[in-house]
Design a protein that fits this description.
By secondary structure, this protein is mostly helical. 43% of the residues lie in helices and 3% in strands.
Length: 345
Amino acid sequence: MNELRILAKQFFKLFAIVFVLIGLVFTWLLTYEPSVKREVIIETEEIVASEVWHPKDAIAELPSMPATVKEGYYLIAESSKYMGPNAARAEDRYSGNNLACANCHLQKGAQAGSGSWVGIIERFPQFGGRGNKIGTIEDRINGCMERSMNGKMLPVDSNQMKAIVAYMNWLSEGVPEHRKAEFKGYPNIEIPTVAVNLEKGSQVYKKECIICHGTNGEGILNAVDGKSYTYPPLWGPDSFNDGAGMNRVITSAEFIKSNMPYLQATWDNPKLTDEEAFHVAGYINSFSRPHKLNTENDYPDKTLKPVSTPYGPWADDFSAQQHKYGPFLPIMDFYQKEYGITKTK
């Protein structure tokens, strides 16, 4: 009998241990959260956060900007005053007109579809056909200085250059990966099959552009200093020169469609049609502007020259008139058949 009692006690202990173990396992199953679920939650939180991300508001954040970044801000926002004709010191007068960089790079470089600087630093160095070489961000800035600003290059090691690059770096902080593409260059347009119609362009200009840029494309001067521009001139002696990208009809049309009329259009909600932007771009570029010297040296490989570049030489026999006003599709077809090069502008 003793042996039976001992055996019964052992069975009872074993049963109790198994019961406790089952209880622990059951409790663990109830409280366990798989790591996959946690990863999904984290990923979802990141996506939600990036969807509400907005580019930096330079004006609002001006008081808290690092000193070098702030210097860069003033150089691009008030270019004429700090590195142009109105600079206090003659040695600081690099730009040759009274435009500001921010007259074209809207929202102080933060607006998508306007050649934004958001994320631009990581896109350099990059190959550029105009110089037929790998260029740095400093090279790109100096391209604008010589062409859009109708001036001269900034020394690469100058305080001005370092400050502008610092500002671009600051604008590019914290950009979500899936938002970067919208800030690159200008969205493409569907290029019309016809040449620019200057009369149609004139009508669009009178309807949509004249209120800001004036009857003769002269722009509107800043009411405070009377020297810089609230709305820039689109042609004439104080505008970008004929070597600038904006002097190409297709590039100009892409910018116009994505951004104009100002404060009415955006890259994802334009006001003008592709055709309207195309004709008004041609109309704007039908007027005279400063001449860039030595443009014949641009694009050492002439097959890389954009088809709407209005100055020669070219690697084809199309006329200067057609290169300036189109139609451009026959020129593009030629480069595809003759050189195997697909051109979009």
